[in-house]
Amino acid sequence: MNDFQQNPHALSGAREHRLEVAIGQQVREYRTRLGMTVADLGRQAGLSAGMLSKIENGVTSPSLSTLQALSRALNVPVTAFFRKFEEQRDATFVKAGEGLAIERRGTRAGHQYQLLGHTIGSKSVVVEPYLVTLTETSDVFPVFQHSGLEFIYLLEGEVSYRHADKLYNMQPGDSLFFDADAPHGPEELHRLPIRLLSVIVYSRQEEG
């Protein structure tokens, strides 16, 4: 029987420990910003160096009065110690075949794009992972050109993929990482169907 089965409070205990660690990291960060040693901050807050070291290492949970003393010594609000813990950690889970269908240049040429996730919140960097499926040939293939970087990984089929003035013959397991500002795209489809993973990364300032 594992610990969680033996102790129904183990999960909440783990969460509390993460809170202690987050508080300790913030205390250390503010202290180092001010160029203070552990002994310096301990004297200012009325704490022993040993106790302060335990707080910074997440070994002990500081009382509210201790947090108030630290906030005065560091000249920050008490709530500042909880910021790391309260930061949202999101995830996007997509079941097989349920990616969001996206219309992009090339869709009419038999190119299917499924968006597998998206950047959540006001992050400065945007990441867009796509599953791209090519199921039919066409006389005209689109040439893409956009800001940021792109990584493609071929899962199935064979394709000659162009980037700038170079042509790469790709088979399953091959990958290509490139500056997406240069013209790029599939030029010759040798074996269908073709499935590839495409991950595009760009600055939010360049969005749109």
UniProtKB/TrEMBL annotation:
Domain HTH cro/C1-type: 27-81
Molecular-function annotations in GO: DNA binding; DNA-binding transcription factor activity
Keywords in alphabetical order: DNA-binding
Keyword DNA-binding annotated: yes
A Pfam cross-reference name: HTH_3
Tree of life domain: Bacteria
Family annotation (SUPFAM superfamilies): lambda repressor-like DNA-binding domains, RmlC-like cupins
GO (cellular component) term, any one: cytosol
InterPro entries attached to this UniProt entry: Cro/C1-type_HTH (IPR001387), Cupin_2 (IPR013096), Lambda_DNA-bd_dom_sf (IPR010982), RmlC-like_jellyroll (IPR014710), RmlC_Cupin_sf (IPR011051), TransReg_Diox_bact_type (IPR050807)
Record's protein name: Helix-turn-helix domain-containing protein
